[in-house]
Design a protein that fits this description.
Strand order of the largest sheet: 1-2-3-4
Order of helices and strands: EEEEHEEEE
Low-confidence stretches: 1-9
Mean pLDDT: 89
Region (Disordered): 1-21
Number of strands: 8
Number of helices: 1
Biased composition (Polar residues): 1-12
Helix content: under 10%
Radius of gyration: 15 Å
Largest sheet: 4 strands, antiparallel
């Protein structure tokens, strides 16, 4: 994944503001490798033979409009108990393909990341369902299976480069796995 020229780590992790990149999870679907970027809320694909690179987002309905288009399901499933938390910020993490290679199941981080706080803060914790298109070259977020945890209050809320979250949500999905029967 290419970084932005002149970008520094001081740019934080705020969507639409940060210039940082943070690739993390990776999955293979057919001829494509999918790599998530937690901060930019995109998934980069690479063709396994030609190395052709493409990008799609998980913040717009189409997967191609970014924050300028109609918001994805993450916006509708976002946490609303702190007006400072940025809505529609899935912070995609680890992922896995379905056995039919038609979907990706992607872990979406929460507002108080238990680990990797420098790049893991998100606003719609749960599992994102991404429909793959163009033979696996691109995709779009179909829905979010939203999770919640308001019991664990022991996790600190100081988020480097993010929002000092004051709400009660502590759900922080860090991985997704698909089990075939």
């Amino acid at each position: 994944m290419e970084g932005n020229a002149g970008a520094t780590n001081e740019s934080g992790q705020l969507p639409g503001v940060s210039t940082r990149r943070d690739s993390h999870g990776m999955a293979v679907t057919g001829n494509y490798i999918h790599v998530v970027d937690r901060i930019q809320n995109v998934i980069e694909t690479f063709h396994v033979h030609t190395y052709e690179r493409s990008t799609y987002d998980v913040v717009s309905i189409s997967g191609t409009a970014g924050r300028t288009g109609a918001a994805s399901k993450c916006y509708q499933r976002s946490i609303l108990d702190d007006i400072n938390l940025i809505l529609n910020d899935p912070a995609p993490d680890l992922l896995e393909t379905t056995p039919d290679d038609k979907y990706l199941m992607v872990a979406f981080r929460g507002p108080v990341p238990v680990s990797v706080a420098h790049g893991g803060q998100g606003s719609c914790p749960g599992v994102g369902i991404v429909e793959l298109m163009d033979g696996g070259k691109s995709g779009k977020l179909l829905d979010v299976i939203r999770t919640t945890n308001t019991v664990d209050t022991s996790v600190p809320v100081s988020i480097p480069g993010g929002v000092a979250y004051s709400g009660k949500e502590r759900s922080d999905v860090h991985g997704a796995i698909v089990i075939a029967k």
